[in-house]
Amino acid sequence: MKFPVRTPAALVGTGVLALLAGLAACASDAEAPRPVAATEGAPSDAPFAAVARVLRHPRCLNCHPSGDAPRVGDDRRPHEMNVARGPDGHGVPAMRCASCHLPENQDLARVPGAPNWHLAPRSMGWEGLDDHGLAEALKDEARNGGRTMAEVLHHMEQDPLVLWGWDPGAGREAIPVPHAEFVAALRTWIDGGAVSPPPGTTSTFEEAR
Amino acid sequence: MRIEFTLNGEARAVEVAGTTPLLWVLRESLELSGTKFGCGRALCGACTVHVDGTAVRACSYPVRYVAGKQVRTIEGLERDAVGRAVVGAWIDLDVVQCGWCQPGQCMAAAALLSADASPDDATIDGAMSGNLCRCGTYPRIRAAIHRAAATLRGEDGR
Asked: Fewest C-beta atoms under 10 Å: which of A30, A78, B44, B77?
């Protein structure tokens, strides 16, 4: 939950500390803040919103489905040809991801590509998660491929498949914030304790525009 | 650039731009016209060939990616038992109508059977869903894959 924030004009000027003490006393009388779990709270909300917007962009979400089929395009339509996850996330026999997707974009054919093109494991399905759920999914080593937060950061910062989101080739929108800005937001969130935002918020670029 | 690879078991070399689609090299430079052009965008599967055993779409596959690799086309499909079973089943069940997509269908079927010797209908449909047939021979394709699988298991008396 978010702590109630009060900003009386009297705060500006002298006696700030005394006023803060008084306000705290008033607040505890009127609306006692409930205990906040270690993984919940306000301090990292803003940085994580910036992270969540990127993770929810089609360039990321299309290959982080919660089901067994990827989506494609900025409109996130089902992948043509009934493409399926397969047992290893690389497709099914005769319909492997690598049957069409090479280590680089093929702009003439408009086939996107990056090294090791594949679906994220089912445990990393992000569809349908709010920001709270996304944050929990990133932190949960049982679901995130056994990554520490440092390794999550490294994945987001270095993995060519992630970087492809900023160079997606013809006909696809690149993630509309600089990669460095995204990584900085992620680092800020992690350094601040990787606190999950409260449930119920779904941050998107559409909402932010 | 000079690109060397193995094509249907034979060493080959071509001098082309590395970005040239493999399909063009096969059909124009090496005059193997069995592999067909369909869509040019990896959407229809007519151009399916194998690169190191993986079914790929030759129309959108820059030839530089096959350097040093094993390429197999419909002309070389019958070099192994799986390929012979596929071609035999295709003939036995008279799968082909117009025929344009069928080299790609056969190559996809061989890739499937190399990975799964006894595919069920759902597995066949999943594996073959990237190979379109405008004549609608899908039921015969599915039946032929079952027939080829039975042949490979020695269950059809061959």
From this structure: A30
